[in-house]
Target: GntR family transcriptional regulator
Amino acid sequence: MDRVYAEIKRRYMTLQLPPGEWIDDLQLSKELSVSRTPLREALFLLASEGLIRAHPGGGFTARPLDLAGISDLFEAHIVTAKAIARLTAIRAEPEEIAELREREAAVNDAIARRSATDIAATNAALHSAEARIARNEYLSVLADRIHDEGQRLGYLAFGGAEQWSQRRLDDHFAKVSKDHAALIDAYAARDPDAAEQVACAHVRLFRERILQFVASSGADDVDFSGDVLTAMRISRADLTS
Model:
């Protein structure tokens, strides 16, 4: 089941399972060359993680991308990022700082190759490692769910594998790399205040990229409704940053 789970999750992250649409489990079982039993087990596991929705009458849909969900995502993201940054700065051991440097290098390599899929995956792996190093089980579980959904949203906003607006995204990812380096430097210096400040700025950077995407023509592919720009600004200085 692990292989099936990993492949369905990959398709979810890269939008091959379109947001909000029904999943044809019979067709999917044929594509993955598995019976429906392990396929449905994998789908139920993904449903327990909040990525897939299992419906009472039977059947599954990929979690939709809508305004309310994305607004909630950023609200949770800013809160958990602050807590994880502070704890990681306090608790990270030298070998864990070295691990974060290696993961940072993997992100930078993906950026240099302009691979949207690899950027999303390596970035999520870096921040998941931070959550693990913070040594708080509850924060780690929440962070993994946030990063899973953020990875899908990032893949959408960064144009997938086919599009790359060179100047705009190069500028964005230069800032991403700078934030990662500053964050790990703060961890190495055991400076929780500096780490929290950089973490907040990093979440805002991602949110601004999403706002730019919403304002672009690409937003036609997503079910956004209402006053997006207002609703996605969390306010109160991003929950007292």
